[in-house]
Amino acid sequence: MKPIPSIGSARRNQSGVSLIVVLLLLVILTLLGIASLRGAIMQERMAANTMARSMAFQVAEGGLRQAEIIARDGTITFPGSGCTAGRCKDASWMSTADFWTGGTYQTGSAISIGSNSITPKFIIEDFGKTSISPAGNCIDMSKPCMQSTSQKVYRITSQAATPTGAEVILQSLYRR
After folding, report:
1. Are strands 111-113 and 116-118 parallel, antiparallel or unpaired?
2. CA-based diameter of the chain, in Å?
3. pTM over cut 0.90
4. Cα–Cα distance between 58 and 161 in angstroms, integer?
5. Are 125 and 88 in contact (CB under 8 A)?
6. How many domains does the chain have?
7. Structural domain boundaries enclosing 24
8. Within a domain: residue 39?
9. CA distance 59 to 152
10. Separation of CA 133 from chain center
11. Per-residue pLDDT tens digits for 66-90
12. Residue 96 contacts by C-beta under 8 Å, 6 or more apart in sequence?
């Protein structure tokens, strides 16, 4: 005959295996939690960088518009060579690596975005005159079409930087 197993004998054979299994599951769940937390932090940083770049882009765009209004409405004088007060006769300013930190750019009006106020920097370069077909070739819709066959061309470069380090530089060509 076979002996009938008692209830207490099975308990002696386990010897803590369930404790090891539960501890391994806890370690796995902890690692999954840490990985998801790191992913959330990375996404938050990416969103903040995207927002900062967007703010810098909007301010640089505003700087372009401010410089275009100056080119449209004012009489612009350029130095014989190089740059003075944001007016450049040629593209020699591009060879200076730190032009936007110590150059002779012009600052525009500060633009408020949310709680931040950022000031755009810009320069206007003289690109000479260009020939165009008369009448019907309007670019600036804020004033009547020019009837002459030549117009002045300016290259406008605008820069904006946020306090967090996002920087955007935009260029446009403007005729008048």
Report:
1. antiparallel
2. 120
3. no
4. 11
5. yes
6. 1
7. 20-175
8. yes
9. 26
10. 37
11. 999 999 887 788 888 888 888 988 8
12. 103
CA-wise closest residue to 79 among 128, 129, 125? 125
At residue 60's C-alpha, the angle toward residues 56 and 62, to 5°, is 120
The secondary structure of the chain in percent helix, strand, coil, rounded to multiples of 5, reads 40, 25, 35
pLDDT surpasses 60 at 160:
yes
Burial of 58 by CB count in 10 Å (0-12 exposed, 13-18 middle, 19+ buried)? middle
User: What is the structure's pLDDT at 122?
Assistant: 94
CA 123-129-134 angle, to 5 degrees, is: 125
Q: Which residues contact 56 (CB under 8 A, 6 or more apart)?
A: 118, 160, 161, 162, 166, 167, 168
Residue 13 lies in a domain: no
The answer as to whether 29 is a domain residue is yes
Query: Does residue 4 lie in a domain region?
Result: no
C-alpha neighbours within 13 Å on the C-beta side of residue 80: 0
- Beta bridge partner(s), residue 151: 130
